[in-house]
User: Fold these one by one.
Assistant:
Number 1:
Amino acid sequence: MAKSSVKDTTLPPSHPVEWSVPIDVDKVSSTPLPLSISPSDSERSAVARRLGVTEVNDLKAEIVLVNMIGSHLIQVNGTLSATITQSCVVTLQPIETHIRDEFETWFADAAQAIPYARAKQDVQRKASGQEIEILNEKDDPESIVNGKIDIGELVVQYLSLSIDPYPHAPEVDDDRPETISAGTEISPFAALAALRPKNGSSE
């Protein structure tokens, strides 16, 4: 069985976060709190290493937090954008991709599941053709940790879902049987072999 093409970029509790922007939930009220965030150069480099890409540039996010009165839930709406540089899985040449994505997340103290994990699962199911169960974000909030919400880490998690795990250069034919397809792992050397002429021809 082919392995999933979606990387798991969640971190264990003891692992330092590459880009941390903690927000005190006591400062989040029923009045929407808008925030604009972007990482430093060193943080962007650390994020790139975590996501397994060459570079992450122009990463920024517009976030709005609001405390839903009577529900004990905090809603986070965000729009992220970034320019990602990766290596083509066939030619190894650099590929620059501009990413823009929107997301919505709910936070609560008593959360048991993470919406990012469910979003990652949905991506995996789409890749394998499985039917996706539609769940309500309010019924599956992310945990509030020590009275804070880390919106920097949240952006990194959702950015990882927008990155193509098998990028191809524009001139590479995705329909070639030798090239990689979603849900299949192949080494760069095997991918380069696919470009060699068949039957010993040098043309």
Number 2:
Amino acid sequence: MNLYAFTVPEKPGWLKIGQTNGNVHDRIRQQLSTVHLEYNIVWTGTGLIGKREITDRDIHRLLEQRGFKREDRSEWFQCFPEDAEDALNSLKEQYRREDRRKELSDRFYEELRNWYFWANAEAGHPEYTVRIIIRLLFLFFLREKEIVPDELFRETWIDENLKENEFRYYKAVLCNLFFHALNAPAERRNEWENKNLMKQPVKVKEQLNKIPFLNGGIFLEHPGDDFALNDDYFFSETRTRMLEELGGNYPVKGIIRILSGYKYTLDESDGTELIDPEFIGRMFESLLACIDADSKENRRKITGSYYTPREIVDYMVRECLDYSITNSGAQDEEQKIQTLLSLKIFDPACGSGAFPCAVMNELMRRLDPEKTLPQTERYKRKLEILRNVIYGADIQPMAVQITVLRLFLSLVQEIRPTKSLKDNFGIEPLPNLDYK
């Protein structure tokens, strides 16, 4: 596909931007055949990027977004050749990022999918196995904020501080981390489980006591949570295992090793090749669809491909909020804010949380458009929105947990730990959203 731009003397300062599969001159002469104008080709380029092609319409759309004047709905733009070139290069870089993100998404999904079927064959309880993935992912995001110490995920520290036992990591570290640190305030941290597996109990407790009480429901103990996966499921190197649910041999490795191989960000608008909360939502949608698939062939076909309907979701949310404000009769900004905070917004099929999270983001954008509020105030605002505005339901209970995870990560984004365990490091516990 050849992209081009040309000028004619009769339209100074204007370019016509088009495309053709053939010769550029032939195409331009064909376009000008009825008027016999002179022309000058000022720019050419190729829209081919990998297996995809950038079209002239893509460039038209981007130039319009950038504010360049367009003649009616034609291909004529008031711009320079450099502007067309820059638009093409920007689109190519966007597609490259999308391709890298898709590659990252597929790899991340496949590794966690394989781990799920490997571990679930041992555990025999899908909700238990998915809960472990959700909890550990949450911990890796918390680690980015230095809320959870890195030592708890390092094999060298584990070898130094725990006794030899094939179940030591789940029993002595994760059970205490989940149920007696993140789910227990300071005054209830007198008893720790499986102290007999700790070689150096004081050092283990020291690391666990660096962690604030967060609550929120993610770390509530469920029936069956006392089942322990052995250390292989957390730290083993890559090996091949027969995964009956997928109907073949697949590479698997420990989930801590998997999660340690990626970098994370809490900012969903970051746009980088990092794992963000929206990325997690899409990955879990693929995983739950895979688990529910009716055949091995269908399970294998499901990928972790990262699709971004964010623009559509954001548009729908903005329209709904604007409609609510218009109907309320609110005039000044304060009245509009009060109207928004008094809404009850319900998503009856919340899935991985696309709409609830978009509501949170859009409300915060309107409450703090320049992001001038201090983090403590932004945290309080988000808490208010979670407690009073957003509701959700889904036919899959685990999908609801994923929505909760993403909303909690939105709160965690505003957390800055301070002071000491006695005052919970200055962090207000997360709300329990089960009733919502």
Number 3:
Amino acid sequence: MATDTFEFKPASRLSRTLAGGSDFFFKLLRIAAFYVGLIVVWQLVADSGLWESYAFAGPTEVWDSLQQNWDNGRIQDAVQTSLKRLAIGFAFAFIIGITMGAAMGGLKWVDETVGSLAVGMQSLPSVTWLPLALIWYGLSERAIIFVVVMGSVFAISISARDGVRNIPPLFRRAGLTFGANHYQMLRYVVMPGMIPSMVQGLKLGWSFAWRSLMAAELLYVSGGLGFLLQLGRDLNNISQVMAVMVVIIAIGLTVDRVIFARLEGWVKERWGLA
């Protein structure tokens, strides 16, 4: 009696490549269609007359303002100044936050004291640090860096604490079984184990730092993207205000896609979470 046999063959590498390329193409097409539609709606709203021209600018006026500020170098100088401040403030916040978080996650009495304070301080909007920064540091770069640090350090510390808490107890017992000392436990068990939670904490901390920086740069004539926003408001130039907002959004998307998306992908692959 004859029986039918079925042979399952894995898809060829070429077919998988073509399928992946097709998905990528349609993804780009969807994104492009969305943003084109968004710009069209934006232009229609600007032409509708719901707002006066001095209160709402269309995409063509915003593009002209963006091109003008790019040609005279204002955008490049502002971006460089803002990113420099962000790098300094976020570096301080990262070091302080990691140290606080590791201590809160590893020592109960630290979590009960400093941890409760960190949770409360995280609820403070970053703009509330501006008056304190002015009193302590005056109109200076240190005031801006202070606001950036205070706006992000507690989010990073809480994420680091949660990362330490989420380490499986089996990892700790295994380290102790192999005779690991305190430094080795910290180096080979605690720090690697907290990385998955820390990625989200770093992303959240960066977003808080970025928004804190924009608020702090409104303090005084200090350069940066926040200053360009304030200058546009003072000149009643809505096109410049919206152009700078577009630049801020573009930088945020770029950092998220280029740095944090890749970091998240690496963590998922490295820790088997994908």
